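User: Assemble these into one structure.

Assistant: Restating your components, then the assembled model:
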Amino acid sequence: MKYAIVALLGLLLGAAAGGAVIYYNPFTQPSPPSADGADHALHYDLPGEVLSFTPGSDVVPPGTPKRDDVFWEETIGRTALLSLVLEDAHDKPAAVASRLLAVSSRTDLLLAGVRVNDYWLLTIPGEGTLFLRAETNVWPFLKETLPVWYFGRHWKGPTDYRPTAGPGADGSALVVGATGRFAGLEGSAVEKYRITDLDPASRSAAATGEIDLKLASSRVAAGQ
Amino acid sequence: MKFTFLFALLLGFGGVLAAGHFVPWGAQVRLPSQTRVVANGGRSERFVIRLPVDRVAAAGAKSAGLRAETTAGARALPPELTAEPLLVEHYKLRDAAGNVVGLAARHWSGDARAAGTAWSLMIPSRGAMLLTAPGEARGALDAALRNSGYSPGSAWTGEVRVAFAPGGADTAVVAAGSDEFAGLDGRYSELWTITGVSETGELRGTIEIDTITRRGS
C-alpha cells in the first residue's frame, strides 16, 4: 500500500513536471517573420468587424453560452468559419475576408504548438481577390487565455501575438492572386493581433489585428 | 521505495511529454474520397452544396441579386464595400455521396476592373483548393429565374439550371492547393440547379462543382 501511494505521488509529480515543460516549452513559441516592406496593411477589430462567425462543435470552449449555429458534423467539428471586414490605414472599410479555419494535423504540443490551418479569401473591391494560406500557432494565445477563463487568473493584458508560423520557408503565410489585378501574383503575409479584453463569463476575447501583405510577380511570370 | 518513487516520477514526466508529441491532437475525421480516374489521366471529383441547408452566411451588394440576402445572425457589408457589385457566400461542402466533408467560401466581384469568382474549398482532413473563374454576369441567376416565371416576393417552383462556369471552359481553373491538393493543375465547372424560391427569396436546389485535376509538371 505504501509503495502504491509513493508510486502514485511520483507519477503525479512527474506528470506535473511534464506539463510544466510543455507549458513553458520554448520550442512552441513562434518565431515570426518580419512584416517589413508590406504592400498592403489591413487591420480589423474583433468582434466589431465580424460579419459572421460559426465554430465547429468541438472547438467551442466548455462553458461557453450555448449557440445553435455550430457545425455539428464530425468532419467539420474542429473547424470554424469567420467573415470580417478589414480597414485601411485611414480606418475606412477596404476589404472583406472569409477565413476557413481547421485544427492542423501538424499540432504537436512538444515541438510545434497548437497549429491551425487558416485559409483566407480576401477581396479588395476594385482590385481583386487574394487567397492566403496560413499556418497559425495559437498555443501562446491559449496558454494565456485558458487560465483566465477557467481559473480566474488575473489577466496581464493587453497582449500582442504574431501567430503566423508558415507554411512559407521564412515562417510567413503564402499568398496567391486569384482575380482582378492580383491574378498571377504571388507573395507572403504575416498576421499580428492584440488581445484587448478577455471576458471569463462568455469565454470571449476582444482584439485588434492586422494582416500585412507582400506581393510579387509569380514565379512562372518571372521565369523561375 | 526510493526507486519506486523515481521510476514513477520518470514515467509520469515521460508519459506527458510523449502524449504531447505523439497523440494526434490535430487529427480530423476523414471519409473516403469520392474521386474517379478520368480516361486521359488525372482524377475527377464532384462537390455538392444543397440549398438552403448548406448555406452558412452571405453578404453582398443589393445589385448582386437574390443571393446577396444576408443570412440570419450575419451582418451586412458596410456601404463602402458595396459601391461595386460584390457577393460573399459561405457554405458547407458535400462530397458526391452527400456527406458533409468541408467548408467553402465564394467571392464574386462584378466590377469592370476586378471581375471574377474565387472559391476556397477546405476539406479539413485533406487540405484546401483555390478555384478561379472570370465570374458570371451580374444577376445571372435572378435573370434566369425571371425568365422561368419567378417574380420577386412570391414563391416559385420549377427547375432552372445555370452554368456559372461551364464544363470544358479553360478559364475556370484549379489555381492553387495545399496538402493533398498541392501541386494539382486542373479545371472545374460550376452548375447551379434551382428548383424553388420561397416568398422571402430563399433558394432551394444544388450547386455542383466538378473538378478535374492532375499532378502539375
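Residues 11 and 134 of chain B are 60 Å apart (CA to CA).
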